[in-house]
């Protein structure tokens, strides 16, 4: 039963991709900085960012989105990537912005990258969770996904959920749901803090550092001129399954497996950091 549910979702999303997705970096993204260090290649199939001593580089989506299921494949800076950070995130603008973050903190050769995640709602973040990965993210492309619908935000790696941030507005926790966001990515030097707490610096003899992107896919509500391509947010006119997608039992178990074996920091377990009590969303829910 779970399997057939899964396949119907898969089928629905495949149909959606087939009919709506162009997946071309020229169409979907604009290079925003880096003076030639960011490049779109192979007729728009691939994109690379690079970093050297003088500058990093970055790009952003042309569209703004209000909810979506957004996938990107990344291959991270190989070898000695200590000090480098590859950020891939969604963000709105302004002082009370919302943000959903993946940040990949490099490491010396053969030591694991740290995948740092955070969620900002109404300008408030401080919701860090960090993971090591169960593979070497520099050897091959892997898919990093954000499911963002009115009920939840789910971070996934190769289809395995690693983190869920639920809508707990009924308990007074802000949730990103009214500010459209763009997708951003950048590669930059953060050797003052990124690797082993800032103790390991970027080795510039290894520059330029390069991260690669491909196979962007957004099943998403595009926000333009004050309205959503999905119709009203409370009663969307699309029947896309991701808009009310939940985590099924299998997904929950996989997420537990990741969190048990690969999570290296969880703000919800950091009692010293929150002497007044853990944030409300950290309370276990049904
Ligand atoms: C780098 O490797 C060290 C040692 O294995 C590990 O503790 C750390 O989490 C890794 N990641 C970063 C970004 O320092």
- Could you name the CATH topology? Jelly Rolls
> What's the level 1 CATH class?
Mainly Beta
Going by CATH, the architecture would be Sandwich
What is the H-and-E element order?
A: HHEEEEEEEEEEEEEEEHE
Strand order of the largest sheet: 1-4-13-6-7-8-9-16
Number of domains: 1
Low-confidence stretches: 5-20
Can you characterise this structure?
35% of the residues are buried. A hairpin with an 8-residue loop joins strand 8 (114-120) and strand 9 (129-131). The protein has 286 residues and is mainly beta. It has one domain (3-278): Jelly Rolls, CATH 2.60.120.200. The longest helix is centred in the N-terminal third of the chain and has 19 residues, at 2-20. The protein is 13% helix and 37% strand. The protein has helices at 2-20, 25-28, 249-262; strands at residues 29-33, 39-41, 46-51, 57-61, 64-75, 84-91, 99-105, 114-120, 129-131, 142-148, 152-157, 160-166, 182-189, 209-224, 227-228, 263-266. It has 3 helices and 16 strands. It has an 8-stranded antiparallel β-sheet. Strands 2, 3, 5, 10, 11, 12, 14 and 15 form an 8-stranded antiparallel β-sheet that branches. 2-acetamido-2-deoxy-beta-D-glucopyranose binds at residues 105, 107, 111-112, 114, 194-196, 264.
């Amino acid at each position: 039963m779970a399997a057939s549910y899964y396949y119907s979702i898969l089928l629905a999303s495949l149909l959606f991709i087939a009919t709506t997705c162009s997946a071309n970096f020229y169409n979907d993204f604009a290079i925003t900085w880096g003076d030639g260090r960011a490049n779109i290649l192979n007729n728009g199939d691939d994109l690379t960012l690079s970093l050297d001593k003088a500058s990093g580089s970055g790009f952003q989506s042309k569209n703004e989105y209000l909810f979506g299921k957004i996938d990107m494949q990344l291959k991270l800076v190989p070898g000695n990537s200590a000090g480098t950070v590859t950020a891939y995130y969604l963000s709105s603008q302004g002082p009370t912005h919302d943000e959903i973050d993946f940040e990949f903190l490099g490491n010396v050769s053969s030591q694991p990258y740290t995948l740092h995640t955070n969620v900002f709602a109404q300008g408030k973040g401080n919701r860090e969770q960090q993971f090591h990965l169960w593979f070497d993210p520099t050897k091959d492309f892997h898919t990093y996904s954000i499911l963002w619908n009115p009920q939840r935000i789910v971070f996934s790696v190769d289809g395995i959920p690693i983190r869920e941030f639920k809508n707990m507005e009924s308990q007074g926790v802000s949730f990103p749901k009214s500010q459209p966001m763009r997708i951003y990515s950048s590669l930059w030097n953060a050797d003052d803090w990124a690797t082993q707490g800032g103790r390991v610096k970027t080795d510039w003899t290894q520059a330029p550092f390069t991260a690669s992107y491909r196979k962007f896919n957004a099943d998403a509500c595009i926000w333009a001129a004050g309205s959503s391509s999905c119709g009203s947010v409370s009663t969307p006119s699309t029947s896309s399954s991701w808009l009310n997608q939940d985590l099924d039992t299998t997904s929950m178990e996989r997420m537990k497996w990741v969190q048990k074996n690969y999570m290296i920091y969880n703000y919800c377990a950091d009692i010293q950091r929150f002497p007044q009590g853990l944030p409300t969303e950290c309370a276990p829910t049904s």
